[in-house]
Automatic annotation (TrEMBL):
<dbReference type="GO" id="GO:0007264">
    <property type="term" value="P:small GTPase-mediated signal transduction"/>
</dbReference>
<feature type="domain" description="RAE1/2">
    <location>
        <begin position="409"/>
        <end position="537"/>
    </location>
</feature>
<feature type="compositionally biased region" description="Polar residues">
    <location>
        <begin position="134"/>
        <end position="153"/>
    </location>
</feature>
<keyword id="KW-0963">Cytoplasm</keyword>
<dbReference type="GO" id="GO:0005829">
    <property type="term" value="C:cytosol"/>
</dbReference>
<dbReference type="GO" id="GO:0005092">
    <property type="term" value="F:GDP-dissociation inhibitor activity"/>
</dbReference>
<dbReference type="InterPro" id="IPR001738">
    <property type="entry name" value="Rab_escort"/>
</dbReference>
<dbReference type="GO" id="GO:0006886">
    <property type="term" value="P:intracellular protein transport"/>
</dbReference>
<feature type="region of interest" description="Disordered">
    <location>
        <begin position="558"/>
        <end position="615"/>
    </location>
</feature>
<dbReference type="GO" id="GO:0005968">
    <property type="term" value="C:Rab-protein geranylgeranyltransferase complex"/>
</dbReference>
<feature type="compositionally biased region" description="Acidic residues">
    <location>
        <begin position="571"/>
        <end position="580"/>
    </location>
</feature>
<dbReference type="Pfam" id="PF22603">
    <property type="entry name" value="RAE1_2_domI_C"/>
</dbReference>
<dbReference type="GO" id="GO:0016192">
    <property type="term" value="P:vesicle-mediated transport"/>
</dbReference>
<dbReference type="GO" id="GO:0005634">
    <property type="term" value="C:nucleus"/>
</dbReference>
<keyword id="KW-0343">GTPase activation</keyword>
<protein>
    <submittedName>
        <fullName>Rab proteins geranylgeranyltransferase component A 2</fullName>
    </submittedName>
</protein>
<comment type="similarity">
    <text>Belongs to the Rab GDI family.</text>
</comment>
Amino acid sequence: RNYYGGNWASFSFSGLLSWIKENQQKADITDECEDWRKLILENEEVISLTKKDKTIEHVEDFCFADQDSAEDVEEAGALPKLPVFGASGAEGVAQESEKECPRMESALPEAESREPEKAPGTEPASAVEGNDVEITSENGSSQSTALGESTPESGRAEAAPSETSAQEPKKITYSQIVREGRRFNIDLVSKLLYSRGLLIDLLIKSNVSRYAEFKNAMRILAFREGKVEQVPCSRADVFNSRQLAMVEKRMLMKFLTFCLDYEQHPDEYKDYESGTFAEFLRTRKLTPSLQHFILHSIAMVSEADCSTLEGLQATKKFLQCLGRYGNTPFLFPLYGQGEIPQCFCRLCAVFGGIYCLRHSVRCLVVDKESGRCKAIVDHFGQRISANYFIVEDSYLSESICTNVCYRQISRAVLITDQSVLNTDSEQQISILTVPPVDPGKPAVCVIELCSSTMTCMKDTYLVHLTCPSTKTAREDLEPVVQKLFTLNTEKESENEDMGKPTVLWAVYFNMRDSSGIDKNSYNGLPSNVYVCSGPDAALGNDCAVKQAETIFQEMFPTEEFCPPPPNPEDIIYDEDETAPEETGFSNSPETKPESLTEESSSGGSTALKKEDNEE
């Protein structure tokens, strides 16, 4: 691939269109070297790797915005044009995009690599509202972490006046989306970071958080009786809520207090352990609205098959994350989830790691006697030896995966013209769980991102929908899209769609979920070859962190996983060592690119520290 992160990546709009085209065509990778077999010795055998990425299926994209001469529009700052390809949902309408600038020529994703995507003088608008976040340790000590820097100018540049929420949304055309395509950072996988989750702890411990900025997800929403409404989560939210009666407020606070230390009161739930969490909620004298809020917006679990214990654990996790960085449990990385793998790549490159883009691998070379993998052969016919090999599941051929049963994730990404719930403040991240209509169907998780997350252009919203697959992504998710949004077709005149946000552009696709598969399920893999999965369907990132640590400890049982790196100022260079080159390549674990030294030492920012509050 020519981008970082695999299926965890983020794309500009034109980059996503290129990705869509690539996955709709599924072209084979051509071999650049035909005589590679001479590199294989007599006592060796090969395990061929797949040439096709089969993790993405059923890709369908639709354009609903006005097509005002979009074929003549050029994306600001883009490179030469790609061939024209049409949107599958808008026949006869040409979609033409610009090729995305290569994300990085070197192995080191520099911190400045995002700068061309920002307009001059702009910074996240959330600085005005005070919900940009600096990640700090529990004791409040500085970690030189996420910066959330803000200035008065930044607020003026991005923040929208509150009075516009009462006005009609601006009409956005397809040509505007193409022209502003570099304003978009569209994630292939939609996740949030739990403020007390494993990934946040790892970012702090490893100091990788200094390479990223975060924003609070400020609103937890619910969809009930055909309406979207905000769910009160913290103590202050509950007692300030106008949608709950005083009796309901007491009921909710009593139940949430019980969930925080439910292990100390087994008598209250042990009779319901064999039942579902939904059944347990019905025994707690909670009103139907409270049951709905707790099940779908706080615990965020399935009504049909979530046990009582699983529901209590999920509710406790939600409540424990409140108050660390805001009144909700969630953080989102500015510029998208794809920033997280790039941040780890930066730290890896600083200490000598090399990340090769546009460099495919043909096969694993296995010693017949020991059964261990000795090397790989790349598509240039180059043999690279190593002691350990970590392979992403998508590289393994069908012959290796005959006993593997994969799950699928249904994904949709929408560009819309307004929020699903308009309030005085437009610049908010929202998370909404839409319950299933039919029994046996999964709930759909909806994450709505505003322009101050640096993932979409001004006056638009980026909406991610995710659920475990039962059919194709479009079949699973389009009914939910139709409930929440207007598709800008002939329905516009119908009264039932008045007030709903309008979908300007949409893409649906299914993504393989290879998490939770035992290594023994793969046929004939050597003991020193480790398999990691792609993204899972969960909202958080705990699965990926656990998997990374497990693989690391199997290879290096006496080593610490992701230890804190030394401060750049503390690194002492040998006399014969030269300064690190601009690319960041180095075989010495003690070298560090000067650009990162300057970045980490500049440090000055306006950041929110952890506050002691009653949550």
